[in-house]
Design a protein that fits this description.
By secondary structure, this protein is of the alpha/beta class. It contains 10 helices and 13 strands. It has a 6-stranded mixed sheet with strand order 1-2-3-4-5-6.
């Protein structure tokens, strides 16, 4: 992509420590933040992998703390690389878990893989492949995630205030990468903990939403429409879920809008050959075409199809069990 990239910042604030925890996923390391002032808070404690928990323990020890000192665990969103160890850390510490209200259900129990398979079939994935992908995803969750006792989880709404690490944050719930993605904004220091909503060098994958017609969330459209909110904050430091801290959110937003237009144009070009399902388009684009990466590719394709539909460039045909798209006449 030729558009400009946002600049990195030198370091995290003095009262914030970070550990890069290992994950088995293609995205690589996940950032876990420790806020050492009361209430002592861990943001995104990673997966249940032993090496990840050991790294988190070392982070605590480096500040003279142990698991029992943790009072609060904040989860930016319910993806396993971010929340997998939350229940275990809560059990060791007695801490409460805080997340965006729409994410609560995903922290306390796994989703039915049959519904995931049905969604993939709806997008054109062959039935056998869809069931295999859904079942393999459920198997990964079993290894990476501990499910939290509902009594330990508190859901917050957009605009609520949250005390953490000696700071008073504004909770920002912003759908896109996840329905209830939670970012924390400290207006006094102009510091933003952005989870995966804003990443300096990675384009977040939009959430893949179920449903039909007008009732289905268009997560990628929502994501792009909401970027101006973060630009207007103008944070001096954005502490993301992956990669280094950065600034210049306006530069990042411009890059994301440019990227979305380019991807949407690629899809429109494919549809000149005739109607196609999201699965067929993903295969032609070769965006993560195999295994679990296929699901990410489908999410990207569906997100950009939603964008094209919102702009009146494509029309969905969903009369049967599988949805396809065609260019608007």
């Amino acid at each position: 992509m030729a558009s400009e990239l946002p600049s990195f910042v030198v370091a995290e604030p003095d009262d914030v420590s970070v550990a890069s925890l290992p994950t088995p996923f293609r995205v690589g390391l996940v950032n876990c933040y420790l806020l050492t002032q009361p209430p002592v808070t861990v943001i995104d404690p990673g997966t249940l992998q032993p090496e990840s928990l050991e790294e988190l323990a070392r982070l605590l020890s480096s500040k003279g703390l142990v698991y029992g000192d943790v009072e609060q665990i904040v989860i930016t969103h319910a993806h396993p690389d971010h929340f997998g160890a939350a229940a275990e850390v809560a059990a060791r510490s007695g801490a409460r878990i805080v997340c965006g209200l729409p994410e609560v259900s995903s922290l306390v129990a796994p989703r039915d893989p049959r519904s995931q398979a049905q969604l993939l079939v709806r997008l054109g994935v062959p039935d056998t492949m869809a069931r295999s992908l859904a079942e393999s995803g459920a198997t990964i969750l079993e290894r990476m995630v501990g499910w939290a006792d509902p009594s330990t989880v508190t859901g917050v709404r957009d605009g609520e205030l949250l005390a953490a690490g000696g700071r008073l944050f504004v909770c920002i719930i912003s759908p896109g990468h996840a329905e209830g993605h939670l970012s924390l904004w400290d207006p006094s220091a102009r510091v933003l903990f952005s989870g995966d909503h804003l990443l300096a060098r990675i384009i977040p994958v939009p959430s893949l939403e179920a449903g039909d017609g007008a009732t289905r969330r268009r997560s990628f459209v929502e994501y792009l429409d909401g970027l101006h909110r973060f630009v207007s904050l103008d944070p001096t430091a954005v502490l993301p879920g992956h990669g280094r801290a950065f600034a210049e959110v306006g530069v990042l937003a411009a890059r994301l809008h440019t990227h979305s237009r380019e991807r949407a144009d690629d899809i429109a070009t494919i549809l000149r050959d005739g109607p196609a399902t999201p699965f067929e388009i993903a295969r032609r684009l070769q965006w993560q075409p195999d295994g679990a990466r296929l699901v990410m590719g489908l999410a990207n394709v569906q997100g950009h199809l939603d964008l094209l539909e919102a702009r009146g460039r494509v029309v969905p045909d969903a009369d049967g069990a599988v949805v396809s798209y065609r260019l608007h006449a």
